[in-house]
Amino acid sequence: MKVDIRKQGSTLIAQVAGEMDLHTSEAFRLAIDPAMASLAVKNLILVLTNVSFIDSSGVGAILGRYRTVKERQGRMVLVGLCPAVKRVLDTAGVLQITEIADSERRALARL
Amino acid sequence: MSKEPKNVLHMEFSSRSENIAFARTAAAIFAAQLDFTVDQIDEIKVAISEAVSNAIIHGYKSRSGMVRLDLRLFDDAVEAVVSDDGAGIADIAWAMQPGRTTDADRMGLGLVFIKEYMDDMKLESQPGEGTRVTMRKHLTAQLQH
Q1: Cα A80 vs. chain centroid, distance in angstroms?
Q2: What Å distances lie between residue B112 and A26, A53, A77, A92, CA to CA?
Q3: CA–CA min distance B85, chain A (Å)
Q4: Catalytic residue (one of B50, B68, B79, B136)
Q5: Which residues pair with A14 in a beta bridge?
Q6: Ordered DSSP codes for B53-121
Q7: In a 3-state reduction of DSSP, which class is residue B126?
Q8: Segment B38-59, tens digit of pLDDT
């Protein structure tokens, strides 16, 4: 699991690479939570282009960050979902509450 | 489903989260001996990941123990059994409902995913003795939907 973080305006952009499960969700949280806390951001863009697998632990990690975003009255956009990841997020109902964009640029344009 | 498996695989590993990816990848490669679609293989990976995660989190909690994965390949199906010697589940009917969890970040979705992505699922447990999840995925199931 690798998470690259950068800030653009009031948005945190996290590029995630790897598989999101029980083992890696802690690294995901540790990469994003301190950045959300220390940088003055309210929106979160998760670029998941290089995420090939996700299970309920990964879904929980995403929904945990979604709660933080909502507390700040911000928005979360998911970018680059492969079919396997999209299917799991759909089954979990995540796609009903978060936004999806084709690219980071389009995600930023929305916010 | 024919009675005799054409192939079997038994794995036993420590209840460490590093081993979850290993277990689901092994199950995916094993299942790929049958003509499953890519989507079906992805579903098997999720189901195995959930069952092994449950054994680690709920079965053993912070203790260390061994998790077993038994795979059996039939002409028209794959069967996976994930078992542990952990805490067990006192109320299986309660555990099977969506949102039932002792771990807020996993949303109680683990068993929901297994039920959704596998064709048959059986959960057996004795408090204090362990839990055993038996899952099957049939080759023809997608044609029946």
Answers
A1: 11
A2: 22, 17, 25, 9
A3: 20
A4: B50
A5: A5, A46
A6: HHIIIIISTTS--EEEEEEEE-SSEEEEEEEESSS--S-HHHHTSTT--S-GGGTT-HHHHHHHHSSEE
A7: strand
A8: 999 999 999 999 999 999 999 9
Closest C-alpha among A16, A84, A110, A102 to residue B24: A84
A23 with B116: Cβ contact below 8 A: no
Spell out which residues of chain A touch residue B44, defining contact as CB-CB under 8 Å.
none
Q: Which helix (H) or strand (E) holds A8?
A: strand A2-8
Sign of the torsion formed by the C-alpha atoms of A20, B112, B116 and B18: positive
pTM value is: 0.92
- Work out the burial of residue B142: count CB atoms within 10 Å of its CB; fewer than 13 is exposed, 13-18 middle, 19 or more buried: middle
With H, G, I as helix, E, B as strand and everything else as coil, classify residue B52: helix
In a 10 Å sphere around its CB, with 0-12 CB exposed, 13-18 middle and 19+ buried, how is residue B36 labelled? buried
On whether the CB atoms of residues A79 and A109 are closer than 8 A, the answer is no
Known catalytic residue: B50?
yes
Residue type, B7: N
CA A59 to CA B86: how far, in whole Å? 25
Predicted complex ipTM: 0.93
Rounded-to-5 percentages of helix, strand, coil across chain B: 40, 30, 35
What is the C-alpha to C-alpha distance for residues B112 and B118, in angstroms, rounded to an integer?
Answer: 10
In the numeric block, which tokens belong to residue A103?
């690219």
pLDDT digits (tens, 9 = 90+) for A70-82: 999 999 999 999 9
> Closest Cα to residue B36, out of B138, B144, B136?
B138
The angle at the Cα of A107, spanning A105 to A111, to the nearest 5 degrees, equals: 115
Cβ(B60)–Cβ(B82) below 8 Å: no
